[in-house]
Design goal:
With 360 residues, the chain is an alpha/beta fold. The protein has 14 helices and twelve strands. The protein has a five-stranded parallel β-sheet with strand order 3-2-1-4-5, with helices on both faces. The chain has a four-stranded antiparallel β-sheet with strand order 10-11-9-12, covered by helices on one side. The model has no long low-confidence stretch (mean pLDDT 90).
Length: 360
């Protein structure tokens, strides 16, 4: 039986322990906080122990990941070691300066592209990595065995594995992970001083944009600082775009004589966003624009969602995606069902016949 040592029992470490324990791995937990490690144990993430490990997963904050990996490479001379920090190049550079070549060959950085707005072991889930991407970042001297072992661990947790160099990873996450966090936080911060009545008007747009704004400030400060070199050019480009939009809005506000071309800037900004959004992969890699949707009014009563799914299934229609939002001031929800375009009309007819109220 493979023994996996998980160092760090926060959200990711505890979730990894839960996932691997469920798949038959022997998981040993370690944390500098006795309370944290005991909680992770009680949640089913593994056992507390110090036996030799076959694999070590370092799930500590990014600013200490390299030092903990170096320690584990020394303490566990036969183990393959990975870390799951959100930034990879800095960790690798610090390790190159701290450990010898033989030890470094047993290390392969990795990053599961999964998380939650909540932090800590109490937010952990055994299925956190199901269907998510887990990036492996082997370096030039990573042993083939190390790469294969961490690949196995990631897949056992339910993830799909992608391999790329550390520098390429950090450049990518600056745009697809770190920038969205900054943008969400900035937009959400505008809500702080709004009157309650104004905040009560919030619909799916602001909720979608600000969902990740509830993230841990300390953790994200470490992440953003660790990838500052790659994040800065992305922020600069967004700042330039925002300046153009701000200038266009100002020109429109000053009157028609100053507004020539301003509406074109606004339209192009929205159009560029559409183009970028269309590249995001949906179910089985299909773009979200491949789907049509119908919005169903969902009474706030038990079994309504189950009944809706049953009626969709009875109609022989396959759902591609689902989103639910809650209406303000009414005991109803709105369920947006996404299907292939050819299934839209049959779905509307079936749900109407079953007595559901649809939004046009």
């Amino acid at each position: 039986m493979t023994t996996v040592r998980v160092v760090g029992t926060g959200l990711l470490g505890t979730s990894i322990g839960m996932a691997l324990s469920a798949k038959g791995f022997r998981v040993q937990l370690h944390d500098t906080s006795p309370t944290s490690v005991a909680l992770a144990r009680d949640l089913g993430a593994g056992e507390v122990g110090e036996d030799p490990a076959d694999v070590v997963v370092v799930a500590t904050p990014p600013d200490v990941a390299a030092s903990v990996v170096a320690q584990q490479l020394g303490d566990q001379p036969d183990a393959v070691v990975t870390d799951v920090a959100s930034v990879k190049q800095t960790v690798l550079e610090e390790l190159r300066a701290a450990v010898g070549g033989d030890a470094l060959a047993r290390y392969v950085g990795s990053h599961p592209m999964a998380g939650r707005e909540r932090s800590g072991a109490v937010a952990a889930r055994a299925d956190l990595f199901e269907g998510r991407t887990w990036v492996l970042c082997p370096h030039e001297t990573t042993a083939d065995r190390a790469r294969a072992v961490i690949d196995e661990i990631a897949r056992a947790a339910g993830a799909s594995v992608v391999t790329m160099p550390a520098a390429e990873h950090d450049l990518a996450v600056a745009a697809v992970s770190h920038l969205p966090q900054v943008a969400a936080s900035l937009v959400a911060a505008r809500l702080r001083d709004l009157p309650d009545d104004a905040v009560g008007l919030a619909g799916p747009g602001v909720r979608d944009v600000t969902r990740i704004a509830a993230s841990d400030p300390l953790l994200w400060t470490q992440i953003l600082a660790g990838n500052a070199a790659n994040l800065l050019p992305v922020l600069d480009a967004v700042a330039d775009d925002l300046d153009r939009v701000r200038s266009a809005v100002r020109a429109i506000g000053e009157g028609e004589s100053a507004a020539t071309g301003a509406r074109g800037v606004l339209a192009q900004t929205i159009a560029d966003g559409q183009t970028g959004h269309a590249r995001l992969p949906g179910k089985h890699g299909a773009p979200p624009t491949a789907y049509a949707s119908v919005i169903v009014v969902l009474p706030d009563r038990p079994r309504q969602l189950a009944q809706l799914f049953a009626d969709v299934g009875d109609a022989g229609i396959n759902l591609e995606d689902l989103r639910i939002e809650h209406a303000v001031g009414a005991q109803v929800g709105l369920a947006e069902l996404m299907v292939l375009p050819a299934a839209l009309e049959p779905l509307q007819e079936a749900l109407t016949a079953a007595g559901w109220r649809l939004h046009s």
